[in-house]
Amino acid sequence: MRYYSFKKIYLKIVILFFLFITLHYFGWLNPVENKLRNFFLWAISPINKQSFQNNQSTDVLTNALGQIDILNAKNKTLEKENFDLRSQLNFKAKNKFDLLGAEVIAKNIEAIDQVIILNRGVADGVKIDQPIIYGDGILIGKIIKVENNISFARLLNDNQSKIAATVTNSNHSLGVVEGGYGLSIKMNFIPRNENVAIGDQIITSGIELSIPNGLVIGKVAAIENESYQPFQQAVITPAVEYQKVNLVSIITN
Amino acid sequence: MIKNKIIKNIIFFLLANFLIFLNLSWHVIVSPTLNLLNITLAILLWLIISNPRGNYWPYILYVSFVNDLFEKTTFGITALPLIFTLLFVHWLLLNIFTNRSLITVFLSGFSAVILYRLLFIGSNFLYYSFSNQTLINTTQLKLFSTEALFTASILCFGYLISAFFVKRLHPEYISHGHIL
Predict the structure, then answer these.
(1) Domain count of chain B?
(2) What whole-number distance in Å separates Cα of residue A53 and Cα of residue A60?
(3) Given an 8 Å threshold on Cβ–Cβ distance, is A10 in contact with B87?
(4) Angle separating helix axes A7-26 and B79-95, nearest 10 degrees
(5) Contact at 8 Å (CB) between B67 and B83?
(6) Which chain B residues are within 8 Å of A141, Cβ to Cβ?
(7) Are A32 and B106 in contact (CB under 8 A)?
(8) B70 and A37 in contact by Cβ < 8 A?
(9) What is the pTM of this model?
(10) Mean pLDDT of chain A, nearest integer
């Protein structure tokens, strides 16, 4: 069998690949990378906004043939934005945190990751591990990567997300809230002898240095307490649908 | 001749940018299930399958690096599996899967996604410095299998449509009297 030789091309591609990586880590590609990133974020921003509008008022847009319906949809979106901003202001007034408002500008391009891109970065004082909240103190994730003008936040339903939490029951049961590929959120490591009921609220425990206690995560939707397992597990209904979140706040202190 | 080359390169560059734009928008527009279609891999595979001897590698490098700017991991971690998967599939198509039946196209697509995911897991594992996270679990396996099936099916469909038009419109094909 005669093997078709593409060795030279393959070698060139591999060399070019590692050359780009090296140039990136020396920082020589930074100006080009920033321009490209800004250009693509600018290009997808109308789609992102439209998608958010659709999420907010699907029921109206499904029949949106007339101008009134379209105006209603826009009105609903503005109402929602107003409500979000007001509840974030409420939260700021009630607590001593420094909040930094941010907008969701894109999503991570890997389908299995539940990561959002925010329009705030190092220049705005954003740091890794800072919590992201929505509305009146609902925790939705935390910062995992920061660039100059943007940052990446991992949502609670990502498979690598792990947050120390507590149940608002009589035992104040402690556990770890873990995500499951965008499909679910579960609270693990709850001692089996403690009573957890459906509808109990889950809040952050404050054990982690970067995440204050009392931030709302969600409510218990189901409990899995098997006799052969050392801990019980609670399936959580998140306090907000992460797909519909557009305006968030970053706790910076 | 040079003019043609320049025009071809401009078209390729525009298409590469369009692909990046499409990939970024795809995850915003579509539902979480449709989201599992690996659109970049599907389109680049279609390009390689349709014309294995084409000069598109600089644009493939460009697409993979720009996509990496929107990744949560460090630069290069996602580009590496993509480039090496495409190089492997390219070699496979030139040396092993030399005919272009629908099964060949499906197998190329399916094996490409599986290889891509294995390399992706490997590079991520190295990136997180062997941290105590689970390397692979059943949910992940289910998602990857769905992604592989979905991407390979869409690739087959795209290949069928493109082959239909290429055959119908190819001047050599028409001149030999296969049509009319």
Answers:
(1) 1
(2) 10
(3) yes
(4) 180
(5) no
(6) none
(7) no
(8) yes
(9) 0.80
(10) 82
